[in-house]
Amino acid sequence: MKTLIFEKRTEEIRGAVFLKDITLTIEEGVHWVFLGANGSGKSRLAELIGREWPGKCGYVSFEKEKEIIDRERRDDESDILDRPDPGRSASDFILERNGTEEEMTVLAGKFRFTELLDRGLKYLSTGELRKVLIAEELMSRPEMLILDEPYEGLDVSSRSDLEKLIGDLMEQGIQLILMLNRFSEIPEGIDSLGYLQDRSLVLQGNREAILRSEELRRLHHFHGESLPPLPPPPSEGEDLYGGPVLVSMKDIHVAYEGKEILKNLNWDVLRGFHWKIVGPNGVGKSTLLSLISGDNSQAYANDITLFGMKKGSGETVWDIKKHIGYLSSALQRDYRVRVSVKLVVISGFYDSIGVYSHYSENEARLAEEWLKLIKMEHKADKPFQSLSFGEQRLVLIARAMVKHPPLLILDEPCQGLDEVNRLMILKLIDILGQKGETTLLYVTHHSEDRIPSIRKELRMDFGGKTFEIELEES
Question: What is 241-470's CATH number, 3.30.2350.10, 3.40.50.300, 3.40.47.10, 3.40.50.12780?
């Protein structure tokens, strides 16, 4: 029987400690879930287990997704071809490993992504890419499969599919190691649980015993009422845009590779009316937001008015961006410059990736206040790229909010956040929404991640269908 044993194991790179005093025994056939706060060391532990497990091991994580998309961008030949280069298709990527087309077809049917097989990897949504990566690892027939936040980015039906798939894998004898942020996502049938804090494994043992323990409650708790006031905008009383209509879209059509994503969409966003945007993976939620943020060239082929400016009437992308705070998975992948955490927050004043001009003392002070608010002030001078995925997410949320923009676009802001940070961020967003100076556009796949100040919902479905809903007060 294969066994992996760590005795007071410490992982250190150039003086930085990533794991310390890890004592853990993983026996063949025993499934584990590891939980912990952002930056606690879950992903580092996953990498260590995958590297040292004495058998064949598969691994899926946010970091792997980023590596794959980075490669697609490096290999992009659109300029040479004089047309968009789709890059590797999902099916080509999956079949690079061992396995047959028949096995791939079965997996695609089970996980409901058959229609994605011919699409380029870089055109997939976060949730769609997650499905493809899991299938690709399964094609190599691993003995152990490590999934780092596998449910993040998946819609409700896809999370249900993954839950069933996990059950099937356990029945087939594939050993699972899951790194999770949400306690609600712990699958049935996994009884061994570990909890990490400050790079150490502080709790481990029987799942139910740990979940009921007073020690876990002490380690993992959020007091929403203790949040201090939000830092002020960069200039008190400054109103970047005072008009009542922030966004007006008329008869919008968007298509990729011949597939219609948005169809006959009419939508107005009025100042002070906050929106939640929901719908399945690949339905066009991120596309819709990119039309507003200025990051989608198809905006110019449509009738869109943003902050009183007709799209294509001579405005620059910076004329639009100065009114917007923005967060998305695409932005997080693109933020690859080597700057400090504090500079990332300061870049929110300039709507840039990195900071390329002299910033004021006031901007630096406000950035420090935001970092203190999200409990990241101790990492202000650390390289942004040295942070965990969830820690990066927190910093980018602060970057989006720092200037109190007229419009705040948050595309799955809680992705990668632990339970405590998620509750804190939802509270901060709600406070900003209640102040009335900032209008919220918020995408989520999780109904429990409610923001009380949001009273409108845009429901999107395939075929370009959209429905506007008034939300009830709770």
Answer: 3.40.50.300
